[in-house]
Amino acid sequence: MTRLIVAAGGGGDTVAAAMLDAGLYGEEDRAVILTYAWDRLLIDPVPGPRGADNFAGLLPMTPAVRQVPAEARPVAPAGSTLPRLAAELPHTFALLDPHHGVEGVTRQLEELISHLSPTSIDLLDVGGDILARGDEPTLKSPLADALTLAACCQVNAPVRLLVAGPGLDGELPPDDFRDLLGPLIHTFTAADVDRLGTVLDWHPSEATGMLAATARGVRGTCEIRDAGLPVHLTDESPTVHEVDLDDAVSRNQLARAIMTTETLDEVEAHSREVCGYSEIDYERNKATWLKDQPPADLNPDTVLAQLEVFEAEATGRGVTHTTFRRITEALNYSGTQRESLRELLIRNHPEQYEAPLWRMANRAE
To answer: Residues 209-232, buried b or exposed e (16+ Cβ, 10 A)?
Structure first.
């Protein structure tokens, strides 16, 4: 049997899809995970999603769909987490290329469904921003989710929409869409996370990192992103709920607006009209800014002194945990230094590492 899981936004949704496959379907069947190659700038310095032309070593699955094997490599200067995921996880990763708009994504889905004849098709979003209207002031990244949602509602096959970790992406408060959450499908456990091996030690996703931490029992308030958004880690955080696909489309104005688009440029134009911005514009601006920022020296004494100040201030804001992305940006280091910074902190204060999050502490502890 073959199952298909569509990672709605790429990135951390891809890792969560592997967790979902383990939690729902066990060890016997390994799902095909259809996902964007769209990573944060610290992984991929080129703004926006990657297409098949940005990789070497992809394998054909259908005329419009390529598999990303462990041996594949992004063509410089692009970067991607997908080959490493393929090397460390037993799933098949299929590349979702959005450069031909919703019509192109729909065609890829239809070809893959015809090729695989899957026993189930799940569309997975971590956080719930796939349920955004488009005008919410806290919404930051609606484009990828809207693309997959618009395509999934047009294929001639039953697609089940699943939302994991309500509110964990920091974009929509769970109260904004709780009335849309349907049956509880699964509650992630530590065993589900353990099946990922060491993936979350290096993967930069904050939302899926918090999903994994809450599955392991972590509770509190986690500060994320460069803006320091507070996200509450509760008993609801490790849950997965089904949501009616038609209800999601009726609510998502951007998904409805882009149904017939044939290029990513068209999708961006609609995003600017509906949401007031395109997240790829934000990535373009940030990439330009980052190019002019030389990496700072990771002197251990300096880093630990900076960390002490940051933790004291964060604790005063009621924060109990944070991500290594947040620490990296709060201490003004570059994204390329995130892994070295993580290793330095864990080496000096291993008791504060609640994988994959960092627990705040006063040095007096």
So the answer is: bbbbbbbbebebbbbbbeebbebb
- Nearest-angstrom CA–CA distance, 141 and 172: 11
Rg, the chain, Cα only: 20
Residue of 118, 90, 111, 125 whose CA lies nearest to 8: 125
d(C-alpha 181, C-alpha 168), whole Å: 15
* Close Cβ partners of 137 (under 8 Å, ≥ 6 residues apart): none
Looking at residue 164, its amino acid is: A
Among left, alpha and beta (phi > 0; psi -120 to 50; other), residue 170 is left
Cis-peptide into 356, omega within 30 deg: yes
pTM of the model: 0.95
Q: Using alpha carbons, select from 321, 359, 324 the residue that is nearest to residue 343.
A: 324
pLDDT digits (tens, 9 = 90+) for 28-84: 668 999 999 999 887 899 999 999 999 999 999 999 999 999 999 999 999 999 999
First CA to last CA distance, the chain: 52
Max Cα-Cα span within the chain: 61
The sheet with strand 32-35 has its strands ordered as 59-60, 66-67, 92-95, 32-35, 3-7, 120-126, 160-164, 239-243, 184-187
Q: In this structure, what token pair is assigned to residue 163?
A: 């939302």
CA distances from 269 to 257, 284, 328 (A): 10, 15, 32
Cα–Cα distance, 107 to 102 (Å, whole number): 8
Residues 214 and 233 sit within 8 Å (Cβ to Cβ): yes
Given a contact cutoff of 8 angstroms between Cβ atoms, the answer to whether 105 and 151 are in contact is: yes
Beta bridge partners of 347: none
**Ranges of H-type helices in 45-92:** 82-88
Nearest to 128 by CA among 184, 18, 229, 207: 207
What token pair was written down for 254?
A: 């951007």
Question: How many residues comprise the chain?
Answer: 365
Give per-residue pLDDT as tens, 316-353.
Answer: 999 999 999 999 989 988 878 889 999 999 999 999 99
Would you say 169 and 128 are in contact if contact means Cβ atoms under 8 Å apart? yes
